[in-house]
Specification:
By secondary structure, the chain is an alpha/beta fold. It has 14 helices and 17 strands. Strands 4-10-9-8-7-5-6 form a seven-stranded mixed sheet, sandwiched between helices. 48% of the residues are buried. Bound molecules: 4'-deoxy-4'-aminopyridoxal-5'-phosphate (PMP).
Length: 407
């Protein structure tokens, strides 16, 4: 069945927004954050209008309604990502907090001198810096699997770096710069055979509906609501309950304790153990509404539409003299990082912005990857299922125009 993108676009009010000079917005910054469908805006608004209260605390009707909605959102997160039995979803601020939670709570209480943490060259800072701090505190060492020239992971190097010393492998399911989709099921199997735990940074793969946790078989998964068309300030760490329950609390306060006395405190099991204080209740409810929206999409048709757009966009950019694209691995996401010889990415972005086009420029929170690529930054155009081929054509035309001006 044909993917009806015009119908889909009506669900996203921001896509009709006018920007600089009255141009209709062309939003190609989806890898940074995605726009929100009406169903998400309504779920959040309805919650605040009708059911709003704090959760887990009071016996009044509104609190019970809010608690039920929040716990229902948790079930939806587990269901959407096909979490296997024995997994739990902890609501966090997003992928960054989820990864920090693993690196602070699990790593700092389990790693010792001589242990290794295996990452890859394509990681986002959120999947590097928390591990650096854990390594400094525990004496563990970080090793880094290399990438190949097409931007895919060098599996042989990954295998070489993996050993009995590796206690955890933490990898992006998909790169926010190169668009590379890593073979996480394979890598997870290899890591488990070596006796290591596996953490998947699913920030980029989740909006493209690539995460089936039962199939991938890792131990920790980190996701952000705002990349999946939900509200900001919310996300989840989906993880094995036995691991979570053996981990020390990460932040302490209300709602995560069993008993507190001056003599000492006992803690609840997961997920509450890791949700100290009043959580982002509306965020969780909006996140669940976003996942419902995605569930109702034809994922195969949306994926095909995105692939067609990616080919059109990559071909269009390549047809402009002096451009270079970083990352062309098979099966990559619709994320195109590129440079134009002699032009600063910010100048390209400024010219595109004048024509209503939103892209991102810079190091994309992946400075070690920039070092590998031998560059300081790129322009990045990142697409979602609501983008159109007409938008891609306008983008290519305006980029060609910018290239002439900056030549
Ligand atoms: N990992 C990757 C691969 C990302 O692209 C991002 C967001 N740019 C993050 C982690 C961090 O996500 P958040 O800012 O939502 O916490």
């Amino acid at each position: 069945m044909e993917f009806d993108v015009e119908k889909i676009r009506k669900d996203f009010p921001a896509l009709s927004e006018r920007t600089n000079g009255g141009n209709t917005l062309i939003y190609f910054d989806n890898a940074a954050s995605a726009q929100k469908p009406l169903s998400v805006l309504e779920a959040v608004s309805n919650f605040y209008r009708h059911d709003y209260s704090n959760i887990h605390r009071s016996a009044h009707d509104l609190s019970m309604r809010a608690t039920a909605a929040y716990e229902n959102a948790r079930k939806k997160v587990l269901g959407f990502f096909s979490a296997p039995p024995g997994f739990e979803a902890v609501f966090t601020r997003g992928t960054t907090e989820s990864l920090n939670l693993i690196a602070q709570s699990w790593a700092q209480s389990n790693l010792r001198r001589g242990d290794e943490i295996l990452l890859t060259e394509m990681e986002h800072h959120a999947n590097i810096v928390p591990w650096q701090i854990a390594a400094q505190k525990t004496g563990a060492k970080i090793s880094v699997a290399k990438i190949l020239p097409d931007g895919s992971l060098n599996i042989e190097d990954f295998k070489e770096k993996l050993s009995g010393k590796t206690k955890i492998v933490s990898i992006a399911h998909a790169s926010n710069v190169l668009g590379t989709v890593n073979p996480v099921k394979l890598l997870s199997g290899l890591a488990h055979s070596a006796g290591a735990l596996v953490s998947i940074d699913a920030a980029q793969s989740s909006p493209h509906m690539l995460d089936n946790l039962s199939d991938i078989g890792a131990d920790f998964y980190s996701v952000s609501s705002h990349k999946c068309f939900g509200p900001t300030g919310c996300g989840a760490l989906i993880a094995r309950r036995d691991l979570l329950d053996a981990m020390p609390p990460y932040q302490c306060g209300g709602d995560m304790i069993e008993n507190v006395s001056w003599e000492g405190t006992t803690f609840r099991k997961s997920p509450e153990r890791f949700e100290a204080g009043t959580p982002n209740i509306a965020g969780a409810i909006g996140f669940a509404a976003a996942l419902d929206y995605l569930k109702n999409l034809d994922a195969a048709a949306a994926g095909k539409h995105e692939k067609n757009l990616l080919i059109r966009l990559s071909d269009g950019i390549s047809s402009i003299g002096g451009t270079r694209i970083y990352g062309n691995a098979q099966g990559k996401l619709p994320i195109v990082s590129f440079n134009l010889s002699g032009a600063h990415p910010n100048d390209i972005s400024a010219l595109l912005n004048a024509g209503g086009i939103a892209i991102r420029t810079g190091h994309h929170c992946a400075e070690p990857l920039m070092e590998t690529l031998g560059i300081r930054g790129t322009c990045r155009a990142s697409l979602a299922f609501y983008n159109t081929k007409e938008e891609v054509d306008i983008f290519v035309e305006k980029l060609a125009h910018a290239a002439k001006i900056l030549a």
